[in-house]
Design a protein that fits this description.
Elements lengths: L9 E6 L4 E4 L2 E3 L6 H12 L3 E6 L10 E5 L3 H11 L5 E4 L6 E3 L20 E3 L3 H6 L8 E8 L3 H11 L4 E6 L11 E10 L2 E11 H22 L1
Parallel strand pairs: 1-4, 1-6, 4-5, 6-9, 9-10
Antiparallel strand pairs: 2-3, 7-8, 10-11, 11-12
Bound molecules: ligand PMT.
Cofactor: Mg(2+); FMN
Family: In the C-terminal section; belongs to the PPC synthetase family.
Keywords: Decarboxylase, Flavoprotein, FMN, Ligase, Lyase, Magnesium, Metal-binding, Multifunctional enzyme
Length: 231
């Protein structure tokens, strides 16, 4: 494995789902497998970067040359991100973070109620991890690349999310197509990034996540190089 040079950029990547506890034996989560985020970490290490991967619970081996930090909940992912992102050159949020968590996870296993057929859970909003990185003061703020999981009007919603979350680049994947997105080995995406002239974009046809990851990393590093040159 080539060791990153001392001047290699530090890249922090989040991957996988988060798990939001309801009680000691139950949780809310989603179908993210971590494959896209782990492929990004592997591709970034191959480009010679110094890579830290903050991962939710997944069943994947750590890519060669990558430092991995395991977390479960969105709040834990947020805390690790806040610790590491201010020292990074590039932050990529590929994790499928739960937007909500239980307001008060039960200390003991929830019992089935004797009466009534419904159970009401109260959820509260989780922190928006990537928006908090994008909002860091200029001298601490890495280049910020987000993902968008969309089921319709992919490019329009991605443009909107790029602006609203204050990102530098966004990778929008269509998660409505069978065999792409969550859990699969293949993905297709729109890449959109900001330039002084406006937003540029390119579309990537269905391909292995490992291959798409290389394209995303090279595009992000090129953007980083132009921003560094402008400073
Ligand atoms: O893991 P795989 O099985 O390989 O699947 C890959 C993927 C489909 C999960 C991945 O490619 C992807 O799209 N990840 C983002 C999924 C998502 O949560 O999208 P979103 O549109 O809800 O969120 C937009 C962005 O905000 C994302 O960068 C997300 O990481 C970030 N976010 C969202 C909520 C939150 N509380 N904090 C965040 O940082």
């Amino acid at each position: 494995t080539p060791r990153p040079a001392a001047s290699a950029p530090h890249i922090v990547i989040t991957a996988g789902p988060t798990r939001e506890p309801l009680d000691p034996v139950r949780y809310l989560s989603n179908h993210s497998s971590g494959k896209m985020g782990f492929a990004l970490a592997a591709a970034a290490a191959l480009e010679g970067a110094n890579v830290t991967l903050i991962s939710g619970p997944v069943e994947l081996p750590t890519p060669k040359g990558v430092t991995r930090i395991d977390v479960e909940s969105a709040e834990q992912m947020h805390a690790e991100t806040q610790r590491l992102a201010p020292r990074a050159a590039l932050f990529i949020g590929c994790a499928a973070v739960a937007d909500y968590r239980a307001a008060a996870p039960a200390e003991h296993k929830l019992k089935k109620q004797e009466t009534g057929d419904t159970l009401t859970l109260t959820l509260v909003k989780n922190p928006d991890i990537i928006a908090s990185v994008a909002a860091l003061p200029a001298e601490q703020r890495p280049l910020v690349v987000g993902f968008a999981a969309e089921t319709q009007d992919i490019e329009r919603y991605a443009r909107d999310k790029l602006q609203r979350k204050g990102l530098d680049m966004i990778v929008a994947n269509d998660v409505s197509l069978a065999g792409l997105g969550f859990g699969s080995d293949q993905n297709a995406a729109w890449l959109l990034w900001r330039t002084p002239q406006g937003v540029e974009s390119r579309s990537e046809a269905p391909q292995p996540k490992t291959q798409l990851a290389g394209t995303i990393i090279r595009q992000a590093l090129a953007l980083l190089a132009t921003q560094t040159a402008e400073k």
